[in-house]
């Protein structure tokens, strides 16, 4: 229950400071981009706008999950304001979970709004769009952002702001290039460090179906289910890591 | 006497590097009795904040243990008895003063009309009844400090832990917070107040006893009256309207110092003071002030020869 109270304050904090600015910025950039494309091309205008909007949704949610995670959770740890809350009869897990739930709640609202805006703007063009494919794509982008948020919290408990952001961005990059790195290593000798990395680093390409959606193709129900199950598995692992470390951490600020 | 806080042989060692360690608190044993106002004194880096953070459970002792009202420190049960004021309180800037108190109250499982009444009471107590509806971003440092004191009191705690409650405030703000703490103790006489400070006059004004830490070790632990009792009775008189004859007479008997207001000199002992006041009045001098010198408390606490009464 306390986690929900802390989560609600986190939602209000995010909404108050950044949420609407990002959505307004996204809407403005999308409209400007589609108007610009209208002047430059005719045939591919719908597809390019659709790709641009899905790409922007992905980028914004990834950056939001990393930098807001650092701001919302770690800034409070480093500034010492966490001590006011943790001196109350609540567990550390409630505090961390509250912040996490608040952040992924705002990310869910952002993903929904951006998906709706994408469909709203692209439905003005004659294109081959599937509502189901768009919804699945946005849902998987959201799932990826939730995994990255958990990863950010796991790093944030142990390291500074800059290190947390850099490490999470590094794992985001490697997570999308896992198969490339894997095949490179497979050509030579497969070292133990990469085998360990493969176990710990999430395969984020599982959540990437933007190119399918831009041709109006959706995933089969079972494929979508396994992608969501994989996201939940990664989320559970990184969040448990963050919780266990936070529970044992000395808070000296 | 019931002990609200029992610190038993507590040591805290920080690992500051791969092979370097720093002992912040060294084998500290201290009991804080119920209803007392106890000051934890010490210079910066003496281990005051580390001690308070171990009481709150933010830091785990390397060895030893701490009991809060009989419950092991750091557990949720121990924190139900506590009210805490951090050294630099920070709040979500977009929240209003009253909303913050309601939020903190809900974390203590308070709700409804009871919570609302308690928030009104506390806003009145700390003098923020006019600002409770304003966003915290518009508050001054003194107002934030008062709001932080209010949030510490929301659950009517048995034990109050204040970390440097007067630090960073201007003289007026310090006086306000000092008066507020004195009022809190008056209204909640059964509550124990344990606070850290390096400002001795604050400890002298508020505490019934003090504990002094030096490099993590307890150097002094005794009632403040005991420290003051041992002080020599030193007074400083400032005079004006001093005739040349009286000036010559005083200069021969005392070390007379000229000041913008007239002259001043020091005296030892109450009997000598009473005798001198009678003589000076008869000679037509006007006594501007009689100041009791208590500077030696500072020397007592921070000198290397501080008695080990623990």
> How do the strands of the widest beta sheet of chain B line up side by side?
6-7-8-3-9-10
* β-strand number of chain B: 14
- The string of secondary-structure elements of chain B, in order, is EEEHEEHEHHHEHEHEEHEHEEHEH
Model regions low in confidence, pLDDT < 50 over at least 5 residues of chain A: none
Oligomer: heterodimer
User: Roughly how much helix do the residues of chain B carry, as a percent range?
Assistant: 25-40%
Largest interface: A-B, 22 and 31 residues
> How big is the Rg of chain B?
24 Å
Overall helicity of chain A: over 70%
Category by helix and strand content of chain B? alpha/beta
Shape of chain B: globular
Q: Which whole number gives the mean pLDDT of chain B?
A: 85
Sheet with the most strands, sense and barrel status of chain A: none
Main beta sheet of chain B: 6 strands, mixed
Number of strands of chain A: 0
Summarize the structure.
The complex is a heterodimer of chains A (253) and B (310). Chain A has 253 residues and is an all-alpha fold. Helices cover 81% and strands 0% of the residues of chain A.
Plain-language structure description:
The complex is a heterodimer of chains A (253) and B (310). Chain A has 253 residues and is an all-alpha fold. Chain A has one domain. Helices cover 81% and strands 0% of the residues of chain A. Chain A is built from ten helices and no strands. In chain A, α2 packs parallel to α5 and α4 runs antiparallel to α5. Chain A is globular and about 60 Å long. The model of chain A has no long low-confidence stretch (mean pLDDT 84). Chain B is an alpha/beta fold and 310 residues long. In chain B, 36% of the residues lie in helices and 30% in strands. Chain B contains eleven helices and 14 strands. In chain B, β7, α6 and β8 form a beta-alpha-beta unit. In chain B, α3 packs across α4 and α4 packs across α5. The two termini of chain B are 17 Å apart. At the A-B interface, α1 and α3 of A face α1, α2 and α3 of B.
């Amino acid at each position: 229950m306390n986690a929900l109270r802390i989560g609600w304050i986190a939602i209000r904090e995010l909404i108050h400071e950044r949420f609407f600015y990002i959505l307004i910025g996204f809407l403005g950039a999308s409209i400007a981009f589609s108007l610009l494309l209208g002047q430059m091309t005719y045939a591919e205008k719908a597809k390019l706008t659709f790709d641009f909007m899905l790409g922007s949704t992905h980028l914004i949610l990834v950056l939001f999950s990393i930098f807001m995670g650092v701001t919302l959770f770690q800034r409070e740890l480093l500034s010492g304001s966490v001590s006011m809350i943790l001196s109350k009869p609540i567990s550390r897990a409630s505090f961390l979970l509250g912040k996490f739930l608040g952040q992924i709640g705002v990310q869910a609202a952002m993903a929904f709004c951006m998906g709706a805006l994408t469909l709203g703007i692209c439905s003005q063009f004659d294109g081959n769009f599937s509502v189901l494919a768009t919804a699945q794509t946005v849902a998987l982008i959201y799932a990826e952002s939730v995994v990255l948020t958990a990863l950010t919290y796991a790093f944030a408990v142990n390291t500074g702001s800059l290190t947390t952001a850099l490490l999470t961005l590094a794992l985001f990059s490697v997570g999308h290039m896992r198969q490339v790195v894997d095949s490179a290593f497979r050509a030579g000798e497969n070292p133990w460090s990469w085998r360990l990395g493969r176990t710990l680093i999430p395969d984020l390409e599982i959540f990437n179906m933007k190119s399918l959606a831009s041709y109006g193709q959706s995933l089969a129900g079972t494929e979508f289910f396994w992608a969501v199950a994989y996201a939940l598995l990664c989320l559970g692992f990184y969040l448990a890591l963050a919780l266990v470390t936070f529970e044992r951490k000395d808070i000296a600020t | 006497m019931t002990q609200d806080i029992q610190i038993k042989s507590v040591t805290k060692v920080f690992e500051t590097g791969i092979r370097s360690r720093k002992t912040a608190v060294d084998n500290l044993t201290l009991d804080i009795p119920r209803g007392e106002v106890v000051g934890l004194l010490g210079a910066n880096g003496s281990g005051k904040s580390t001690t308070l953070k171990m009481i709150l459970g933010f830091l785990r002792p390397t060895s030893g243990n701490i009991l809060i009202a009989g419950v092991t420190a750091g557990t949720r049960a121990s924190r139900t008895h506590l009210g805490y004021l951090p050294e630099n309180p920070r709040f979500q800037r977009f929240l209003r003063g009253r909303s913050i108190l309601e939020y903190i109250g809900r974390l203590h499982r308070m709700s409804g009309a009871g919570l609302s009444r308690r928030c009104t009471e506390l806003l009145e107590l700390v003098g923020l009844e006019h600002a409770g509806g304003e966003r915290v971003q518009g508050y001054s440092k003194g107002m934030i400090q008062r709001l932080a004191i209010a949030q510490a009191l929301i659950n009517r705690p048995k034990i109050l832990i204040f970390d440097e409650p007067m630090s960073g405030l201007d003289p007026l703000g310090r006086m306000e917070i000092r008066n507020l703490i004195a009022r809190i103790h008056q209204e909640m006489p059964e509550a124990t107040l344990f606070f850290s400070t390096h400002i001795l006059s604050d400890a002298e004004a508020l505490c019934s006893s003090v504990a002094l830490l030096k490099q993590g070790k307890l150097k002094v632990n005794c009632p403040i009256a005991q420290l003051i009792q041992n002080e020599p009775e030193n007074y400083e008189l400032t005079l004006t309207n001093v005739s040349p004859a009286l000036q010559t007479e005083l200069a021969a008997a005392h070390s007379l110092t000229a000041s913008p207001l007239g002259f001043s000199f020091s005296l030892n002992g109450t009997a000598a003071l009473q005798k001198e006041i009678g003589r000076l009045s008869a000679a037509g001098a006007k006594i501007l002030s009689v100041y009791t010198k208590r500077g030696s408390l500072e020397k007592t606490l921070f000198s290397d020869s501080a008695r080990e009464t623990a």
